[in-house]
Amino acid sequence: MRIAHAASELFPYLKTGGLADMVAALTGALVDRGHEIAIFLPGYRSVLDGPHAKSATLTHKLKIEMGDSFLAGDVYTLQPRPGLTLHLICREEFFDRKRPYWTGERDYDDNDARFIFFQKAVAELLRLTDFKADIVHCHDWQTGMLPLFLRDAERRYDVTLALKTVFTIHNIAYQGIFPRKSFGLTNLPEDLMGIDGLEYYDQMCMLKAGIMFADLVTTVSPRYAQEIQTPEFGNGMDGVIATRLDDLHGIINGIDTAVWNPAVDASLPARYSVENMAGKALCRAKLLQEFGWDAKFTGPVFGMVCRFTISKGLDLVLGAAEFFAQQDCRLIVLGGGDRKYEEAMRELAAANPGKIAVSVRHDEAMSHLVEAGSDFFLMPSLFEPCGLNQMYSQAYGTVPLVSKVGGLVDTVVDAGKAADTGTGIMFAPAQTGFNSGLKRALVLFADQTQYAAVQRRAMQRDFSWKTAVAAYEQLYTEAL
User: Fold this and answer.
1) Is 233 domain-assigned?
2) CA 322/CA 326 separation, integer angstroms
3) Contact 287, 373 (CB under 8 A)
4) Distance of CA 342 to CAs 314, 316, 345, 365, Å?
5) Residue 145 burial (CB count, 10 A)
């Protein structure tokens, strides 16, 4: 099949979260299975200046209709591997910025124009490149209107650009909601701006467009597909989701085992596997040293890598400050995001310099070391569509502590309830639940025989894309 993917980020070019990892791994797995893949990505300055896009060449100049105006854009194209083509859609006004979506405190005021331009450019490129896509797979709100732009372009030019479209909800909390006047930039028929179209409480919603107008809708775990049908997790979209239940599919993500595999991970100071765990102790020692602690520390090391947002359960971590201060343990937190959480986490570390370290930065190599060097990995998420770090943790023999939500339920077996098959610790997404999970971790770590058994079972699980890619292939085939 010929499959086009449109996304706002892609590893290793630009990454703020699991979306980048998922799109990279899925498209790579599809190429491995013999499919021809085209990926469309905004041409952020950091991508163009980065080490991975050096071979990109200017291939197209675009003029994109945006309301009453036409805006110019350039397209740089590269082929990272046979069967995979990456198109970078560039316009300095929109994409030459430090961050892809927001200032660090609020969303960019022109995100409507930025991503309408991007999506229209994808439709135009599919026409100009004559890719003849069997499937166009759209990811999250930044591409939610693409199915509409494709069909509009087909009508205008009397061509077929995609046989079927798929829209994946990676996180329904991010919806791409803009003022009603933003619809003027779309140049779509006015009747689409109604209750059965893009209108959402007298505003325009890009996520709703994807849900309503793609041929199939997916999300990134079976549990999350159920959760978003409820008011508790639907973020106001449960009514919209209810209209597409026959076309809604939950497919659990996999992990890229060429990147996330302790046996071959070149970013680690030592490699290891379930058959030979000696390298994990060296990674642990290196991690402790990186934060100025004694490499021979024998208590449990808790690690956490995440975006600093309310959904990741950082308030629960802050609420457990007394636990980390009093217990003979270490806590390492890596990430960044909301300023208030960056400041709060820094203050937590400053108050407990011998126990807690916080590194406010995005550092891919360090995230691998935190996964490999920690004894437990914390994911106290209030909701989690799929989650990848709990799968990375199990692959690296680092026992995950996870909330009982979303994809975490689909991928972690609670050792407390399944002593012979357990691979982690699961708790209710509340302060009492998290505190209880931390205490259970201490008990497990004190019994090194049982802890090692949980480690081994976790490392023996297969989280590769072999299963997930087959599910997407079946979905594409059924759609066609």
Assistant:
1) yes
2) 6
3) yes
4) 10, 15, 5, 20
5) 30
Q: Could you tell me if 203 and 285 lie in one domain?
A: no
Residue 272 lies in a domain: no
Q: Rounded to an integer, what distance in angstroms lies between the CA atom of residue 59 and that of residue 70? A: 19
Instruction: Give the count of alpha carbons within 13 A of 193, CB side only.
Output: 17
For residue 435, the one-letter residue type is: N
Model confidence, pTM = 0.92
Q: How far is CA 164 from CA 4, 137, 249, 326, 438, in A?
A: 11, 9, 15, 57, 47
Question: What is the span of the domain harbouring residue 382?
Answer: 278-462
Instruction: Give the residue among 108, 84, 85 at the shortest CA–CA distance from 95.
Output: 108
3-state secondary structure of 246: helix
Q: Is residue 294 part of a domain?
A: yes
Polymer length of the chain: 480
Which single residue is written with the structure tokens 């007298």? 202
The three-class DSSP label of residue 223 is helix
User: What tokens appear for 1 in the block?
Assistant: 């099949």
C-alpha 145/C-alpha 119 separation (Å) is 7
Helix (H) or strand (E) holding 74: strand 69-81
Which residues make beta-bridge pairs with 216? 166
Nearest by Cα to 339 from 315, 314, 308? 308
* Long-range residue pairs from 288-293, CB within 8 A, at least 24 positions apart, any chain: 288/330, 288/373, 290/366, 290/369, 291/330, 291/332, 291/357, 291/359, 292/357, 293/330, 293/354, 293/357
CATH number, residue 43: 3.40.50.2000
Query: Do 431 and 303 share a structural domain?
Result: yes
Work out how many domains the chain is built from and give that number. 2
Q: Of all helices (H) and strands (E), which one includes residue 248?
A: strand 248-250
Cα separation, 469 vs 290, in Å, equals 37
Asked whether residue 262 is domain-assigned, the answer is no
Q: How would you write the pLDDT of the chain (480 residues) with one tens digit per residue?
A: 999 999 999 999 999 989 999 999 999 999 999 999 999 999 999 999 999 999 999 999 999 999 999 999 999 999 999 999 999 999 999 999 988 998 878 899 999 999 999 999 999 999 999 899 999 999 999 999 999 999 999 999 999 999 999 999 999 999 999 999 999 999 999 999 999 999 999 999 999 999 999 999 999 999 999 999 999 999 999 999 999 999 999 999 999 999 999 999 999 999 999 999 999 999 999 999 999 999 999 999 999 999 999 999 999 999 999 999 999 999 999 999 999 999 999 999 999 999 999 999 999 999 999 999 999 999 999 999 999 999 999 999 999 999 999 999 999 999 988 889 999 999 999 999 999 999 999 999 999 999 999 999 999 999 999 889 999 999 999 999
